[in-house]
Amino acid sequence: MRILVVEDDQDLNRQLREALTDAGYVVDSASDGEEGHFLGDTEPYDAVVLDLGLPVLDGLSVLERWRRDGKTMPVLILTARDRWSDKVAGIDAGADDYVAKPFHMEEVIARLRALVRRAAGHASNEISVGPLRLDIKAGKVTLDGAAVKLTSHEYRLLAYLMHQKGRIVSRTELIEHLYDQDFDRDSNTIEVFVGRLRKKLGGDHIETVRGLGYRIGGDGAD
C-alpha cells in the first residue's frame, strides 16, 4: 500500500515516513501544498496524510482541488488540537478522518489502516480467501491456520491483492501501489515475487489472468 505524507514540519514529516515504512507502507512525501497537490493529482495513493497548515498552498485548498477533480483516495488530515473549525472545514471539504496534534504515531497508523481497509470494502482487520487469512493489524498471514513467513515485499504484494480480492489487478497497478515514484517500472520484480508467493502458498491462490494481471479470490472464492 502506498501512502502520501504532506507535512511541512521536517521532523514530523520524517517521523511519519519512518513509522509508516516500519508499518509496511510505501511512502512518498511533500513539504508544501503545491508539491503535495501535484503528487496526489498524478500518482495513485491508497491514502494521504495531509497537514492543513501548509506553505505555498494550504491543505484545505489541496483537498478541495483533489475532490473537485474526482480524486477519491482516503485523506487523513492533521489539525491543531484547539482548532475545531479546521476539523469541520476539513471534513466538509472531503477528508475521511482527522488526527489532532500532538498525536501518538500508533493512532495515525491505526486510522490509516482503517481508511485503507474501508476503501477496499472490508469491515474488519482480517481478510480471508478460503484457507488463506490476512491479519492486517498484526501484519501476519496464515494458511490453514499455520503462519506463513513472508518478506516485506512478498507481504505487501499479497496484502494488496487480498485487499482487492475477486478483482483482477494489473501489473501496472501493483507497481503503482507497491513502489515509490522512483521505481523502475520496466523491472520484472512483480513476476519474481508472485513466483515466490506461489511457492510458499501453493499455486492455486494467485491466479494469472492472461493479458490482464493477477487475482486472488476469483470465481466465487470466500
UniProtKB/TrEMBL annotation:
Residue list for modification 4-aspartylphosphate: D51
Domain Response regulatory residues, every copy: 2-116
Organism superkingdom: Bacteria
GO CC terms: cytosol; protein-DNA complex
Gene3D superfamilies according to UniProt: 3.40.50.2300, 6.10.250.690, Winged helix-like DNA-binding domain superfamily/Winged helix DNA-binding domain (1.10.10.10)
MF annotations from Gene Ontology: phosphorelay response regulator activity; transcription cis-regulatory region binding
Keyword Metal-binding attributed: no
GO biological process: regulation of DNA-templated transcription
Pfam families: Response_reg (PF00072), Trans_reg_C (PF00486)
OmpR/PhoB-type domain location: 124-218
CDD domains: REC_OmpR_EcPhoP-like (cd19934), trans_reg_C (cd00383)
DNA-binding region: 124-218
Nucleus listed as a keyword: no
UniProt keyword terms in alphabetical order: DNA-binding, Phosphoprotein, Transcription, Transcription regulation, Two-component regulatory system
InterPro entries from the UniProt entry: CheY-like_superfamily (IPR011006), OmpR/PhoB-type_DNA-bd (IPR001867), Sig_transdc_resp-reg_C-effctor (IPR016032), Sig_transdc_resp-reg_receiver (IPR001789), WalR-like (IPR039420), WH-like_DNA-bd_sf (IPR036388)
Protein name per UniProt: Response regulator transcription factor
Biological source species: Stappia albiluteola
